[in-house]
Amino acid sequence: MTAEFLEHQRSIGNDLLTPVPEYRFPGLLPGDRWCVTALNWLRAHHDGCAAPVVLASTHESTLEVVPLEALQAHKIDVPDDLANL
C-alpha cells in the first residue's frame, strides 16, 4: 500500500486507514500488503494512484476486470526471501 492509494481508497468510501477493533482490523499503513477488490484497484489506476501489485499473489480472475497491461505497469518483484510476504 502507498499513502496515496490509501487516501484514494478513503476518498471513495473504502477506509483502510482507520482501525476497526470489532472486526479485528488494525488499519493499514503505507508499506502494508492487503488484498483489495479488482474494481477498487482499477479505479485507483484510472485515477493515477494504483497500489503496487504482486502478480504472483493475484488471482487470474482479476483479468476479467483489470487488463494485464495495467497490472504489469504496477508490478513489484517478489523477493527471494518470501518470509516477509
UniProtKB/TrEMBL annotation:
Organism listed in the record: Mycobacterium marseillense
Pfam families in alphabetical order: DUF2237 (PF09996)
UniProt cross-references to Gene3D superfamilies, sorted A to Z: 1.10.1660.80
InterPro entries: DUF2237 (IPR018714)
PANTHER family reported in the protein's UniProt record: SLR1628 PROTEIN
Protein name per the record: DUF2237 domain-containing protein
